[in-house]
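Regression report. Comparing outputs from two consecutive submissions.

Submission 1:
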Amino acid sequence: MADNRFTDEIAVTLNLSPRQVNAVIQLFEEGCTIPFIARYRKEAHGNLDEVQIASIQEQLTYHRELEARRETILSSIIQQGKLTEALKEKILACTKRAELEDLYLPYRPKRRTRAMIAREKGLQPLADRILEQALTGDPLAEAEAFVSPEKELFDPQTVLKGARDIVAEAISENSEVRRFAREYLAKHGMVRSEVVEPQPTEPTKFEQYYDFEEPVAAIPSHRFLALKRGEAEGILRVSLLVDGDAPVQFATETFGMRTGAWADQLQLAAKDAYRRLIAPSVELDVAVVLKQQSDRAAVDVFAENLRHLLLQAPWGERFVVGIDPGIRTGCKCVALDSTGKFLRNITIYPSQSQQKEIEATVELLKLVAQYHPYAIAIGNGTAGRETERFVRQALKRSGKSDIIVVSVNEAGASVYSASPVARDEFPELDLTVRGAISIGRRLQDPLSELVKIDPKAIGVGQYQHDVNQTLLASKLDEVVISCVNNVGVELNTASVPLLTRVSGIGSALAKRIVEHRNANGAFRSRGELLRVSGLGAKTFEQCAGFLRIRESQNPLDRSAVHPERYALVEQMAKDVGVSLEQLVGNQEAINRIQVNHYVGETVGKLTVEDILKELKKPGRDPRAVFEPPAFREDVCTIEDVHPGMKLEGIVTNVTAFGAFVDIGVHQDGLVHVSELSDRFVRDPSEVVKAGDKLTVRVLDVDVARRRISLSARSAPKGNAKPAQTGGQRFSKPMRSAPRPTSTFSNNPFAGL
């Protein structure tokens, strides 16, 4: 039975039907994974995508944690003997963590406070007089009765101050007052930053924030994270500011301030409560929410970039040579067969002397002649462009210009080469050779190679070291799993890291699958997976559809058709009068299949349509066709780049403020969001994705700061001035942000 306690709330939050939410929760409780639910249980949940299914899982986790906290709070208040029916109803009605904590605040065990001390001195009756807002009486005269030097109550003013401490605490613990103050700050407050004195004498990345403010409700995630980084590095002081008059007025109205003699005392208590007790707390609350939302936005940017990077077009199963460039230590060259198997390695030193260059040419051409690679992959790090130029010249002289030379993003290759995965694969090889192997394999199949690396090491995010690392790791892992299962995995060649990401498998089982394969030879059918120790029927259900066996006698084992539907496909073949082998890939025969004829209680229309699509193009790789980038040979360093140049590059990173583009000079240039298109663009991902080829124009080059400003807009005509660019923004201090765009809802606490 599905846990449907939170179905309605989740459905409203995500704008889904309760039936859809309940179906997904039921599938989760049955042990199903997100890729499996999205791909093979469409009828159950109404064709939700992976993002929607993951959101249901996230909301379910949140509500279960909220419920656990609610039970803890109720238990605590019951133990104190203070739970009333009205309070219980309020606690049970809470749907947000912050509101729940506000209700618990008066009952939370706390350190000794000024209000506690005042109560111990017997001032509660006088505090009650302030709270009653009586129309008669003289506060000073009544306070006189509480004067007691033994209790350090030396005069009426001291007495009233103590009574106000009690009132201030009562005001600060009122959930409605706290809610109003929090939301008022979120809607009307300002984020303020200033430079910490003494001001740095050298240029920093935070100069535009030395005297800066922007509305809390409008500040974009990347700007808030930049402020927090500046604060962490001791350069900036960041604060949240708001006019406190409105929260104080709300507090006095909530506590029924009247025009009598006690009104001034309540007013003073409310001001003290806000300044001393409420403001520091709600400012922290809002700052935490801003950080959480900024983290989530940054993580989403990283995840989207990673998805496009993982799904880059593969070169395919062809022989390649991978080169990890180097100057002092030389260039490590490896030959790989069509499956990525390591064959041989050499080290050449083309940049050390003319004689060494000649020797390097001879050695490289020998390697090429021996293994006949279709392409040579060169890492884009230090000496990458120089090595690329050398290789092209060597191939040209030898008449082998038909071999493609490709610059490959080597981010994370060094992390892989020193990792346990690399040591297990190549225990006898030097880590620099392992790095060259990784570079070559990235060209053959980026996804299969990049899954071996911690996604954070690939470096395609913004402020990735500043965000919540648990959230980041979870989201990136979700993306990797999604990409792997979207593409599918060849069971007989997949590595342990790749199999680990397949729906339902995990690392321990992935190792057993590889061990079984090594001991018994290649799998001949999907069904043989059930012979692997520890792989039961439920795991088989979850993973089988995402695994491919190219050499299987059953053509469906090469496709995304799930084994649970093999009998259905066999019946389709029989009904149209062809064999199963003749049906797969046969457009004419497949077009004769009537979808509705196979729809029943256990099989829906969506499933049948998916099967027919797969039969038309079985095992088709969803990734694009590979096209090598073309960098200018005369542009190798930042010193070669000049304003006005038109260059072709590869988008390496898309952020909230623009896109970074590799133009082949070891330093990515920035295309600010205002320069990405001739039309207005709010979100850079609307225009470009990581891995896209992009033609850009150089606007500005700051060699000292290693910054290149680029534009993807049409060149200005006549005497028209180009729009302000990322390069101009680098050095120009900014008091407040131009054209701020809100990345948050009107109520920043809506998701808490």
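Submission 2:
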Amino acid sequence: MYQVLYRKWRPQVFKDVVGQPQVTQTLKNELKAGRIAHAYLFTGSRGTGKTTCAKILARAVNCLSPIDGDPCGECEICRGIQDGSILDVVEIDAASNNGVDSIRALREEVNFTPAAAKYRVYIIDEVHMLSIGAFNALLKTLEEPPAHVIFILATTEVHKLPATILSRCQRFDFRRIPPEDIAGRLRYVTEQEGGTIDEEAAMLLARLSDGAMRDALSLLDQCLGRSKQIDVKVVNEAAGLASREHLFTLTEALRDGDSAKALAVVDEMHRAGKDMARLCEEWQSHLRALMLIKTMHDARRLVAVTDDEFTALEKQALSVRLSVLLHGLDTLQETLERMYRGGDRRTAFEMAVLRLCCPELDDSRAALVRRIEALERGLPSHRTAQPAAQPSAKEPTAAAPEEEGPPAAFAAPASPTPPEPAAHASKSPPPSLQALAAAAEPLTEWPEILQELKQYSRTVAAAFDGSSAYTSGPYVLIDAQSELAFRLLREPAQRDGMRRAIQKVTGRTYKLGPYRPADESAQKAADPLQALAERAQAQGIPVVES
């Protein structure tokens, strides 16, 4: 008879348990030291190894020849417990045996000594399902059981257990298994089953399992049923998922307010037989990844995707506002709840798409925030549209007298206390700017700031293409190859637009300055002939090169 993968590859020793070192190492140390408690409580989300560790512990305490805290798996006790011929290890499902009578029968059984093993072990799964009367009946036995009895309680909802039960157990918390660990285990199991799985498909299965190894192995079982060579396409077909391209397209339609494009994608997915609730969940997960990328300095470890897909997510995150993402997450969560209450799922999802693409049709708070933000963003853009288009025409006249001054000239109006008042009179950067540059750190949000600047003026944003920026104390130091960028920032309107864009993205108000590292000024100072030639050209004296 065929055995499903999560049963076939259930770990038999503690070292094979994936992603729970805080539990397995402690249990091994206690077993080696002979410090065996009378009651254990294993708590955590589904599929993280609670029942597996309980079974390993039941064999380890009774093993005749334990190896470094692990059961040997070869002695008659280990084999008997494994095949069910030794009845001293009892598994009880509390969901179906949750009454007082079941616990009273258990209390009578614990008085009998083990038939073959050293300990009688009771594994009570989903213990939170016991009734209040059953808990009360278990209290005294759980506190002072006979010396030959060990209780192992397992639950996914530890908050439902009475405090009197919690205080009588040694508690172990099982964490969600990291996606990287799940992907590694999936690759190993696939190889043992004679198949192959690529990295992207393994990470997709790990992300879908949500930290549960059992769920991941069940999905892998379905994929191997379709093909021995597993890629992302096989995973999408086996799990009924939307392809990543559809999710990116839906998000682009949300960003652009293109409801027709979004509804066309929904229709295509529906005709392909995709479940609308699953599509809604996948899109919600996609928007969550974009939200994390926009709000965190480094969201890589929280977004369980491949490197290529993460790069694509980063690129899309720059073009979508945070208010749009929050509106999407809020609306999709409400839509999922409506779907599960009943009704036509396709209609519910299409209504959500329309409200997201046309926020004026939505009366929720998130939609109002989007509309207010759009108004605020539109007002300064409308008022400064004409001045933003004029810098190129003013360059030959207004900016000509400043060509001999350093680009740092725009830093003076940015703050009532400029770094160096004498900046206009000197050809080299002021010492204070050199000190700021020496302590500067890269501004990672600079690409997003330039995207925000495009909302204010595309002309100004285009002047900063290929530039970079650094933060140093209260200053943002801009490193641009184009002199036009610095000339634009000498104008108060353009400088204020840049500061507003920086504040919008970073949440802080910075002063502006040029990035001029010390080695650049030293290089200029080391070439006196070049400096002399520049002064001669400034005075109109011809210079002849030899």
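Expected: both submissions complete independently.
Actual: both completed, but the second showed a warning that disappeared on reload.
Relevant detail on submission 2: The chain has a mean pLDDT of 81.
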